[in-house]
Amino acid sequence: MAWLKASRHGCWMLLAMLYAVLGSATMSLAQEPDVLLVANDGVETHHLTRDTTRAIFAMRQRTWPDGQAVRVFVLNNDHPVHGRFVKERLSVYPHQLQLAWDRVVFSGMGQAPNRVRDQQEMLERIAETPGALGYLEREYLDDRVQVISMD
Amino acid sequence: MIASKSYRWTDTRLGIMTILLLAVVGGSARAEDNVLDSLQLHGFLSQALILTDDNDFFGPSSRDDGSFKFTEIGANVSLRPHEDVLVAAQVLSRRAGGDGSEASPELDYGLIDYQIQSSQRRNFGIQVGRFKNPFGFYNQTRDVAFTRPSILLPQSIYFDRTRSLGLAGDGISLYHEERLQAGTVRTQVGFGRTRIEEDVDRTLGLDRFPGSLEADTSAIGQVRYEHDGGRIITALSAASANADYDSPGAIPGDGDFHFQPWVLSFQYNQEKWSLTAEYALRTLELKGFNSFPDKDKTGESWYVQYTRRFLDDWQWLVRYDSLVNDRNDRDGEAFEASGAGPAHSQFAKDVTLGLQWTPHPRLMLAGEYHNVDGTGWLPTQDNPDPTETSRYWNMVLFQLSLRF
């Protein structure tokens, strides 16, 4: 019955690992606020799938699902919030996104996103630009913009 | 000569058409307020220094001072006059050896793109004008240094010899993106007239005759699958380019030219490294000429490339790249036995080591080393006599690139 003992041992190990993983996940959630997907208040779409969001940020899709033109705003590639948004919310790496922009801009398939210096400017530009889409840390939000939910 | 003139004329005509369209669209757009807000201008410039021990690549690279005759300059404009419409055009001036006459600016692309559908699940659109051919991973932006992993793209697939043929088409292109559970499928299909310039005549050995190749209808297509946000990318590209040879006399006589390349592409991406491989088969056919029998040849190309990013703005690369002109004569022995030229002109095996530094998003400095066995993709323009080429040769390149 050695195998049984071994598998029971394995079960405990697995549980312990699961606990550790869950624990660290909730801890990181508590420490780092999510970078939220944020749009101009006039936008009528309130939810985007991750794939659609990725296509919009890669500048391959030019309108919101309801037909309004989308204007994309991003921080510089080396901005930590850009890195976190791109990796955690879009599941791609900043260098891949940069390459995607260069490819569309220099092949006639699309345009480059609008660059902003910091989150304060991101907030202002999203608030004043119809169809704007960008991202912000929670503490930069105010009621002139809306959070778009994404799965 | 006649061909090059008529094609330059086509270029000019297309350029004028695009400018007119831009003007019309721009004019009608003034009714709306912020259309010109969407106007974007971008450009790039790159200059290389090329040094070789034997053989010349893009100019007199084997001389002491090397060759500076590899320059790429481009500028583009784009505008969104309507939420579903994009108008874009790019002018390119490229010198890769030669006497400089080929560096005159050309319309690289000029198109109107109408995105008919754009939902959470898919988008679908149509482009009319001169569009860039989606071929392998790099063809659409092959002249833009910032989109290349190395100064020279793997020459087995992206060589210069029949460059004009694969570059762009004048016609209609359709694109589609479908988001599935596991990943995204993207398709692009184009129909139109390819650009055929003197490079193709030269490569086929037709430049010694007074006639010229005239482009006929061609088709190109690519299906691309991106898994898990692009962690794994695979693509299959295929094209069928056709041209008619117009001969003023009985020699070589009128004939047909067909070019059918296939490329299978694969890439695996991680944060710090990427592994890329492509495999291509190229079928060339010359039929119906009086002065030589029909020719039918399939070439084979492939490469495997590893790129590694480090210290935020550095990247190094190692690549093995192989080209065979004729699958039925891999070592070129039969070619040499027939008296057509040296065996080593029928293949090329290239080991490349490269380094890129991007100290600023607008500036890139790069250097690379090639160790090559064979002259399969060596430009004929730089080495008119194949018997004077060396089989084993080395090349070092440096390049400075800017973009805005």
Describe the structure concisely:
The complex is a heterodimer of chains A (151) and B (404). In chain A, 46% of the residues lie in helices and 17% in strands.
Write the SSE topology.
The complex is a heterodimer of chains A (151) and B (404).
Chain A: H1 2-31, E1 35-40, E2 47-48, H2 50-57, E3 71-74, H3 80-89, H4 94-105, E4 114-115, H5 119-128, E5 132-137, E6 145-147, E7 149-150
Parallel strand pairs in A: 2-7, 3-4, 3-5
Antiparallel strand pairs in A: 1-5, 1-6
Chain B: H1 2-29, E1 40-52, E2 67-82, E3 85-96, E4 106-118, E5 122-132, H2 163-167, E6 168-179, E7 183-194, H3 198-203, E8 212-215, E9 217-227, E10 232-246, E11 255-269, E12 273-287, E13 295-310, E14 314-324, H4 333-337, E15 347-360, E16 363-373, E17 392-403
Antiparallel strand pairs in B: 1-2, 1-17, 2-3, 3-4, 4-5, 5-6, 6-7, 7-9, 8-10, 9-10, 10-11, 11-12, 12-13, 13-14, 14-15, 15-16, 16-17
InterPro entries (chain B): Porin_dom_sf
Organism (chain A): Halomonas cerina
Signal peptide (chain A): 1-30
Describe the structure.
Chain A: Keywords: Signal. Chain A: This is ABC-type phosphate transport system substrate-binding protein. Chain A: Residues 1-30 form the signal peptide. The complex is a heterodimer of chains A (151) and B (404). Chain A has 5 helices and 7 strands; from the N terminus they run H-E-E-H-E-H-H-E-H-E-E-E. With 151 residues, chain A is α/β, with parallel strands linked by helices. In chain A, strands 4-3-5-1-6 form a 5-stranded mixed beta sheet. Chain A has a two-stranded parallel sheet with strand order 2-7. Chain B is mainly β and 404 residues long. Chain B is built from 4 helices and 17 strands. Chain B has helices at residues 2-29, 163-167, 198-203, 333-337; strands spanning 40-52, 67-82, 85-96, 106-118, 122-132, 168-179, 183-194, 212-215, 217-227, 232-246, 255-269, 273-287, 295-310, 314-324, 347-360, 363-373, 392-403. The two termini of chain B are 36 Å apart. The A-B interface holds A 48-49, 51-52, 54-55, 60-63, 65, 67-69, 76-78, 87, 90-93, 95-96, 99, 102-103, 105-112 and B 38, 40, 42, 44, 74, 76, 78, 80, 83-84, 86, 88-90, 109-111, 113, 115, 118-121, 123, 127, 131-132, 140-141, 144, 146-147, 175, 177, 179, 184, 228-230, 269, 271, 309, 312, 361, 403.
